[in-house]
């Protein structure tokens, strides 16, 4: 049996999947199987996988069930002690699996080990932005307020966790992963590799513009979770909503919808005023002011300068 099962959901992803798979086979840890879940694709994925000679690859073809359905198929088919999830357009640094496997091997109380995440553009070039979290150990109280696993391609999870808490919940839609990590955090500690070992590809053209749908999916997770949260922690529910609204205000700015960004920011304030005075909230205020006076192109210019500076700084770090 392989030590790790790598689950890659794929839906018409051939523009990126070959490069993504290259980063899997470039891993310094090699005891793994790769489950490519062909989720009803209409591209040439079947012919392409058939041309590959590495015996660690398995192609599983199903009718389109969406990301949650593909994840569940991967979990049910996985033979490994640990399961890694990798979106078909994301990338891994070579030492990712090795460091995560070592963490789980040495710490039986840990059910999931995460990494920091580097944002890259559509070509795979770093934007200079590293998404850092310090969520490790008992993270349940923290994760019920806000997702601490910011990229679905970063965690490595014990297979036994899914036998204990069940599969991803299709009712949660695009937030089914947040719901899953909450359930695992209620039973296990989380580990963390404080290095950007996961590269999260950003697609401006494919970014969801339906913020209302994203809100409903997050709302489903919050309402489901807080049904079982003890009374003394019910006050965290409003903070959870405030953080969702703050996130949606950022998404609205990315979608060039200034009025919607203002609306969601006001909702964040109404839910928990402290949230808008956080580092993210203050940065957002600046972004909104730039957009107000200089338009979306002005905000893009400020962001491009900021990203260039971050890339230059990262380049100086050995």
Instruction: Enumerate the spans where pLDDT stays under 50 for 5 or more consecutive residues.
Output: none
Strand content is 15-25%
Shape: globular
Structural class: alpha/beta
How can the largest sheet be summarized? 9 strands, mixed
Give me the number of helical elements: 11
Distance between the termini: 38 Å
Gyration radius, rounded:
20 Å
Approximate helicity band: 40-55%
- The helix-strand sequence is EHEHEHEEHEEHEHHEHHHH
Mean pLDDT: 93
Question: How many strands appear in the DSSP assignment?
Answer: 9
Characteristics of this structure?
alpha/beta, 318 residues, globular, 9-stranded mixed beta sheet
Kindly describe this structure:
The model has no long low-confidence stretch (mean pLDDT 93). The protein has eleven helices and nine strands. The protein has 318 residues and is of the alpha/beta class. Helix 9 packs antiparallel against helix 10 (258-271). Strands 1, 2, 3, 4, 5, 6, 7, 8 and 9 form a nine-stranded mixed β-sheet that branches. The chain starts with a strand and ends with a helix.
Strand and helix map with partners:
Elements: E1 4-10, H1 17-25, E2 32-39, H2 45-50, E3 57-62, H3 66-77, E4 82-85, E5 91-92, H4 96-106, E6 110-120, E7 126-131, H5 140-143, E8 156-158, H6 159-165, H7 176-185, E9 189-201, H8 211-226, H9 236-254, H10 258-271, H11 279-316
Parallel strand pairs: 1-2, 1-4, 2-3, 6-9
Antiparallel strand pairs: 4-8, 5-9, 6-7, 6-8
């Amino acid at each position: 049996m392989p030590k790790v099962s790598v689950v890659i959901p794929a839906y018409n992803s051939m523009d990126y999947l070959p490069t993504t798979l290259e980063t899997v086979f470039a891993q310094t840890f090699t005891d793994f199987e790769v489950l490519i879940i062909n989720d009803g694709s209409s591209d040439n994925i079947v012919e392409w996988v058939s041309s590959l000679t590495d015996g660690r690859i398995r192609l599983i073809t199903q009718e389109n069930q969406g990301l949650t359905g593909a994840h569940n198929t991967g979990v049910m088919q996985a033979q490994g002690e640990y399961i890694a999830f990798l979106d078909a357009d994301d990338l891994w640094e070579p030492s990712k699996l090795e460091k995560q496997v070592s963490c789980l091997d040495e710490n039986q109380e840990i059910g999931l080990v995460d990494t920091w995440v580097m944002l890259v553009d559509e070509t795979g070039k770093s934007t200079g932005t590293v998404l850092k979290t310090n969520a490790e150990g008992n993270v349940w109280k923290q994760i019920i307020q806000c997702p601490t696993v910011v990229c679905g391609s970063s965690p490595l999870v014990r297979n036994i966790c899914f036998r204990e808490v069940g599969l991803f919940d299709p009712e949660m839609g695009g937030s089914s992963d947040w719901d899953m990590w909450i359930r695992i955090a209620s039973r296990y500690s989380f580990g963390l590799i404080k290095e950007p070992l996961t590269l999260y590809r950003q697609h401006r053209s494919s970014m969801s513009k339906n913020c209302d749908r994203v809100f409903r999916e997050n709302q489903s997770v919050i309402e489901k979770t807080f049904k079982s949260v003890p009374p003394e922690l019910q006050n965290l529910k409003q903070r959870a909503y405030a953080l969702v609204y703050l996130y949606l205000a950022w998404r609205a700015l990315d979608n060039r919808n200034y009025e919607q960004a203002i609306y969601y920011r006001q909702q964040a304030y109404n839910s928990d005023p402290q949230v808008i005075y956080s580092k993210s909230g203050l940065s957002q205020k600046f972004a909104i002011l730039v957009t107000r006076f200089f338009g979306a192109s002005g905000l893009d210019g400020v962001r491009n300068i900021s990203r260039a500076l971050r890339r230059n700084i990262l380049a100086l770090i050995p």
